Amino acid sequence: MPYPKGGSTEQRVVASLFAVARAIAAEIRRAGASSQLTAPQFSALRLLDGEDWSVGGLAKTLRVSMPTVTQSADSLVGKGLVERYSDERDRRLVRLRITPEGRSLYRHCRKEVDRYVRHMLSALPEQGKEELASTLEAIALQVEEALLVR
């Protein structure tokens, strides 16, 4: 795996984050192979596992276009993992809800991804894992705050 040797801190962080993201996406595909689940679909199921969402709300939260979410939702509906319904207060608004099959698949994949990450972190001392988690949480918070300003 090519990492920028002697590169800037920023280059090393980007290269490392991309490597981790690719590895997690591959693990999601492996765990969800029976339904050909993709990482973006996993992200949608992750949100839908907690509550129902509008298509627009999902697009905004996932930071993708409406057509991208619509295409992903079409695929998830076709697989029986998500269902569409009209909002009772505003019939023009289409909402998405996870099905029992979708919830089961999401939780299976989540368990497998957690197992995979736990294995990848196993070589680190507990304090190193905590520091990594805290640092990533701080970066994620800064990213979210920066996106709100835009």
What is this structure's SSE topology?
Elements: H1 9-31, H2 39-48, E1 53-54, H3 55-62, H4 66-78, E2 82-86, E3 94-98, H5 100-121, H6 126-149
Antiparallel strand pairs: 1-3, 2-3
Helix pairs in contact: 1-5, 3-4
Question: Could you describe the 3D structure shown?
Answer:
The chain is mainly α and 150 residues long. It is built from six helices and three strands; from the N terminus they run H-H-E-H-H-E-E-H-H. It has helices at 9-31, 39-48, 55-62, 66-78, 100-121, 126-149, and strands at residues 53-54, 82-86, 94-98. The protein has a three-stranded antiparallel beta sheet with strand order 1-3-2. A hairpin with a 7-residue loop joins strand 2 and strand 3 (94-98). It is globular. The mean pLDDT is 91.
Provide a quick synopsis of the model.
The protein is mainly α and 150 residues long. It has six helices and three strands.
